[in-house]
Amino acid sequence: MEVIKKVLVIGGGVAGIQAALDIADGGYQVILVEKTPSVGGHMAQYAEVFPTLDCPQCILTPKMVDVGQHSNITLLTYAELQKVSGEVGNFTVEILQKARKVNHKKCTGCGTCWQKCPEKVPSEYDAGIADRAAIYIPFAQAVPAKPVIDTEHCRYIKHLEFVEGETEGKRPPQCRICERLCPAEAIDWEQEAQTITEQVGAIVVATGFDLMPIKRLPEYAEDPDVIDGIQFERMLSPGGPNAGVVRRPSDGKIPGEVVFVSCAGSRDPEHGVPHCSRVCCMYLAKQAMLYKHAVHDSQAHIFYIDTRTTGKGYEEFLQRTMTEGTVYLRGKVSRIYRDGDKLKVMGVDTLSGKQVEVSADLVVLGMAMLPSVGAKDMAARLGIATDEQGFFTESHIKIDPLESTRPGIYLAGTAQGPKDIPDSVAQGSGAASKVLGLFARSEMTPEGLTVG
Ligand SMILES: Cc1cc2nc3c(=O)[nH]c(=O)nc-3n(C[C@H](O)[C@H](O)[C@H](O)COP(=O)(O)OP(=O)(O)OC[C@H]3O[C@@H](n4cnc5c(N)ncnc54)[C@H](O)[C@@H]3O)c2cc1C
Question: In total, how many domains does the chain have?
Fold first, then answer.
């Protein structure tokens, strides 16, 4: 049987982008499937990235543009894998292209529609600290830079779907402002989801991670001023909702004291997460440093169990954070509660053995990294195994770390387990080299073995 020299990459974060580019540059066709309306993944949300404090947009956007324009890459955003059959060298995959309700061939990406849309919903890209319109691109550098209509929130679609006596509330107005104002006549209410069927020889899974929701840690208080690391990245980002001015959510005040909590959920079997999330020590150090650069005369405390900074240049980065005035407190936080205008963070300083209480205007939790929502279903669809935490299992943890448990399906990035950007990129390239090696063989024997 001939090997089909085309590959499916699932997930358009930095790992999937790297895998897609390396395979495409090797001369083979790639279908890159991303479930959200743009590629970029989590890295696109950050203010700056450790250890070099690069602006992620500066180093990621060129790669995002490349995957959007590469002649060997078919980019399917707002799409998801539905079904897989076949075997290594010859898989049949069915991909659901969700309805965008916008004709991307006609749309010029001028932005009139998303600027004028009256319906506002929490922005996923801004991790809920700002709103987006119901017709939207997720962020300014999105690829593709053409919008989709969020059918769950669009007023006109809700108007059409309203059934008197069955749907709650009043029938929403017709709206259709986007349609009236679109100079390219690109709004297409008739557009439906469609299934695309493709044959591929290999699959790279790079579906990334999601953070544990804060509500799983009730002892850390449900308070608007207790936020997670991604929300704080959006606050710090010059491209964020407040153009990099850090303001606490409850009243918009610039916080003078911020407490950062490591291992919020991670290394905590009681909350079902025994693993270390590997990047929190570093990103909390980065955030404390950036916060102190942004707000002069401010105070940053970091509670930690122990610091784990094993990458190149990482220990030096941590030392710099300490030298620049961030106070490290060795201990686990037991409780966070509100006391008037302030939050109180209680823990035990395990070096002195004393109970400590630190007051804060804002608390940032380094929440555990978990497999991306839907990873379990994805594993079932692909017929590959996951570990106890739901990360995809490698064929052999030491000598086959990029192979999944099914031949022809490879793993890259945080879909396999928590890791930083350099390791995710390295795995993206590694998975690509596995695919290129497979495609260097032209045929397969009936036993499924490739021959040169
Ligand atoms: C707050 C915070 C700050 C950080 N800062 C740094 C830093 O400064 N430096 C650093 O080195 N690392 C940092 N990291 C780690 C960094 O985020 C990860 O290493 C990196 O994002 C991993 O990339 P990825 O492609 O594996 O996953 P992701 O970035 O999660 O991308 C996965 C992509 O797959 C898509 N996807 C998911 N499921 C599906 C599906 N079923 N079908 C199609 N697409 C799907 C997602 O929408 C997403 O676009 C930070 C992490 C956090 C939480």
Answer: 3
Beta bridge partners of 202: 7
pLDDT digits (tens, 9 = 90+) for 425-434: 999 999 999 9
Cβ–ligand 1 contact at 286 (below 6 Å): yes
Q: Is 112 exposed, middle or buried (0-12, 13-18, 19+ CB in 10 A)?
A: middle
Paired tokens of 148:
């989709």
* Per-residue pLDDT tens over the stretch 3-41: 999 999 999 999 999 999 999 999 999 999 999 999 999
Burial class (CB in 10 A: 0-12, 13-18, 19+), 198: middle
The per-residue b/e assignment along 334-346, b for 16 or more CB within 10 angstroms, e otherwise, is: eebeeeeeebbbe
Q: Which amino acid is at 362?
A: L
Q: Which residues contact 66 (CB under 8 A, 6 or more apart)?
A: 21
Q: Is the CB of residue 182 less than 8 Å from the CB of residue 112? A: yes
Q: Is 249 in contact with 129 (CB distance < 8 Å)?
A: yes
Q: Is the pLDDT score of 405 beyond 90?
A: yes
Determine the Cα–Cα distance for residues 207 and 41; give it in Å rounded to an integer.
9
- What local confidence, expressed as pLDDT, does residue 169 receive? 84
For residue 208, is pLDDT > 70?
Answer: yes
Instruction: Phi first, then psi: give them for residue 272, nearest 5 degrees.
Output: 80, 10
Between CA 252 and CA 336 the distance in angstroms is 20
Separation between Cα atoms, residue 91 and residue 152, nearest integer Å:
33
Q: How far is CA 208 from CA 132, 211, 420, 421, in A?
A: 23, 10, 11, 11
Domain that holds residue 167: 112-181
- Please tell me the distance between residue 429's alpha carbon and the centre of ligand 1 in angstroms: 16
Other Cβ atoms less than 10 A from the Cβ of 252: the count is 9
- Calculate ∠ Cα 360-50-432, nearest 5°: 135
Q: What mean pLDDT value characterizes the chain?
A: 95
Span between the terminal Cα atoms of the chain, in Å? 13
- Same domain for 199 and 76, yes or no, is yes
**Ligand 1 pocket check: which of 10, 18, 43, 425 to mutate, most ligand atoms within 8 Å of Cβ?**
43
* Tokens of residue 254, six digits: 């610039």
Q: How many CB atoms lie within 10 A of CB 33?
A: 27
Q: Does any ligand 1 atom lie closer than 6 A to the CB of residue 3?
A: no
pLDDT band at residue 143, thresholds of 50, 70 and 90? very high
Mean pLDDT score, 57-64: 96
Which of 320, 354, 369 lies at the terminal end of a domain, its last residue? Answer: 369
94 and 198 together in one domain: yes
